[in-house]
Design brief:
The structure is a homodimer.
Chain A lengths: L1 E9 L3 H12 L4 E4 L7 H4 L3 E2 L10 H25 L10 E5 L2 H16 L5 E4 H7 L9 E5 L3 E2 L2 H14 L3 E3 L3 E5 L2 E4 L4 E9 L5 H5 L4 E11 L7 E6 L2 E7 L4 E5 L13 H14 L7 E12 L6 E4 L5 E4 L9 H12 L35
Parallel strand pairs in A: 1-2, 1-11, 2-8, 4-13, 11-18
Antiparallel strand pairs in A: 3-7, 4-6, 5-6, 9-10, 10-11, 12-15, 12-16, 13-14, 14-15, 17-18
Helix pairs in contact in A: 1-6, 1-9, 3-6, 3-9
């Protein structure tokens, strides 16, 4: 039995770490339990903060949440960088979605019209205008949609900064697996039990096994390159029906992502997935072949029945923050703020209310009419 | 000043390590100087032992050396595995060179006829016969040449075994860079000088800088996969004019190699090279996409003006063993034996005599009429 805490958090990914930091800032005593904090999906994620270029029909509730969290990012980053003393690689240079043929161009025009109706900012560009912005683009690029509000962050630096800020705010980190949880305790692999005022499960794709909530891991491959100055902003496009994106960072890293696969808990890197990512990125940016290949990896996104997050309190009294699927990095600020409000005794804020776990049954069916499966991503 | 030795060897790749072991077996005291022994070209090499499938017109002297060394391999491996207590992953299941079109088939038939004239053993097979031997081969494979005498070894396990065997035989390993050498001393980065009866330079592509001998690094990319049972033997072919080979090991490793590039001393891994290796291997073996990708790497082969080794004594009294280009692993036994004979006061054996450094001037021109550039490999 170790000293009791106000909040015990199972899971040291971006969601768990950000919530730990926020809760500690509110004066709560916090422990984070994770065998290898920051080494799950957060370690693999490319870090796109793209509510606009990923806006899909029928997902207006989720879009609202995504935009809300994107809006929190500048202040979140400023506060976190000050608290941790480290940069998180936040880039506000925008995103350019490009079209390789007339069909793609029509899709971009339609997305542009949809964004206009929602009041989102984007500009349709000619192929020539795209190449003026990004000279490495293929001559076959026919058109583009420039979204200055879709940004990116380096998830590894974000995780490291959250860890440091949490540590400085008094968060305790327990490098162990949690073997059992109740609404007031977490038992560790070594047999220790931590008594807690509240218990939050933020274990990504492993949360369903801890809670009985529906959900599944959704595997994603990414390839990390090195090439300073290769791109000024995130470039994305649809090649052979698959979305591919290329995210540059100020430290010279360039990340190609991402596959979307239902492969269970397998995180092995497959030859075919790496090959396809390189092939598709090469189609958009032929000069990418000259860059250095640094790392190939695969991670597991926490998928939910409707691919929208599950944030709130379970019937058994435990709290949960999971199911962020492809938007975990983007949704970190709003999720941490909402969960901290709950943990401090408040209510789930209005923007998060539609994403309470109440909407799903333990049998895996969804009762939320406002957030449907994204569907367009591989 | 540390204790003097009979032989100081600069370079802890397969050539240096094997010579150290052999020299220690002959009763000589030996020191090997290398900052990171086994981490050069030996670390990246796929380990094909392929004198027959790599036989080229006009390279009969080199072919003789290659065949001689291949003939030494079984006893070399048996002795080394006994001395080290570890396996070196020696596979004698043969090599299958395949043709994807009629032109490739004609090249294989020509190579087959050439091999027959030289008395080398190989069999022309139909596409169906190839697929019976290797069911993962593409349906487009039209013909093949089976060479049961072309084997493979795991260079990393070979290096580790040589290190252990050398250590057990009394070889001293100095993990430092050599900053200067004479015929009787090696100076280390920390300022220490080792007095030696003989000094051998076996520093791969860095040997020219130490000796003034002509030579250059020839970069090669390889990709390491995991897939037990995927292939029974090495498969190679020519795709889009480039040689690609896939080497399986008994521990489940599968290695795709290799590019042949003149890029100076750069060992960074390039996106385009990995992409092309995967693409070309996929052409021969479509199912390779399902395997796990473990590692992408690049190393530097020690090239010489005629791509044949430089083994013998320099005018200044120092000994040299370098320039093994694409055949370093294959030529390890014969080189170690020949150099040890020299170091023990004997003569360069007849099979190695044509490869003395006497044939090249310090200006980089070749005087050897019997060994011309391979030319057919990318």
């Amino acid at each position: 039995m170790t000293a009791p805490v106000d909040v015990a958090i199972v899971g040291g990914g971006v969601i768990g770490l950000a919530t730990a930091w926020r809760a500690a800032q509110r004066g709560l005593s916090v422990a984070v339990v994770d065998q290898s904090a920051g080494r799950g999906a957060s370690w693999i994620a490319a870090g796109m903060l793209a509510p606009v270029t990923e806006a899909h029909y029928g997902e207006e509730a989720l879009l609202g949440l995504n935009l809300d969290s994107a809006g929190r990012y500048p202040a979140f980053v400023a506060e976190l960088e000050a608290a941790s003393g480290t940069s998180v690689g936040y880039s506000t240079s925008g995103t350019l979605a490009v079209a390789l043929d007339a069909g793609d161009r029509a899709v971009l025009a339609e997305l542009h019209a949809y964004q206009q109706r929602l009041g989102l900012d984007s500009d349709l560009l000619s192929g020539r205008e795209c190449r003026t912005l990004e000279p490495m683009l293929a001559p076959t690029v026919r058109a583009g949609l420039l979204v200055t509000g879709d940004h990116s962050v380096d998830p590894r630096r974000l995780t490291a900064a959250l860890h440091t800020a949490g540590h400085r705010a008094g968060v305790r980190f327990l490098e162990q697996q949690a073997t059992a949880t109740t609404s007031s305790s977490v038992t560790l692999a070594d047999g220790t039990t931590i008594a807690a005022g509240s218990v939050l499960l933020a274990a990504g794709c492993w949360t369903p096994a801890l809670t009985g909530l529906p959900g599944r891991p959704v595997k994603g491959h990414v390839v990390r390159l090195r090439g300073a100055g290769f791109l000024q902003r995130t470039v994305r496009g649809v090649v052979r029906g698959f979305d591919v994106y290329v995210v540059p960072r100020d430290d010279g890293e360039v990340v190609i992502g991402a596959t979307v696969e239902e492969m269970g808990f397998d995180t092995s890197v497959r030859v075919g997935c790496v090959y396809e990512l390189l092939r598709d990125a090469h189609e958009l940016l032929p000069g990418i072949t000259e860059l250095e290949l640094v790392e190939c990896g695969a991670g597991l996104r926490p998928g939910s029945p409707d691919n929208a997050p599950l944030v709130g309190r379970l019937a058994d009294g435990r709290f949960v923050a999971t199911g962020h699927y492809r938007n975990g990095i983007l949704l970190t600020p709003v999720t941490a703020d909402a969960v901290t409000e709950l943990l401090a005794g408040g209510q789930l804020p209005a923007v998060m209310a539609p994403f309470s776990p109440d909407r799903v049954s333990a049998h895996g069916t969804s009762a939320a009419p406002t957030a449907t499966q994204a569907g367009s991503m591989r």
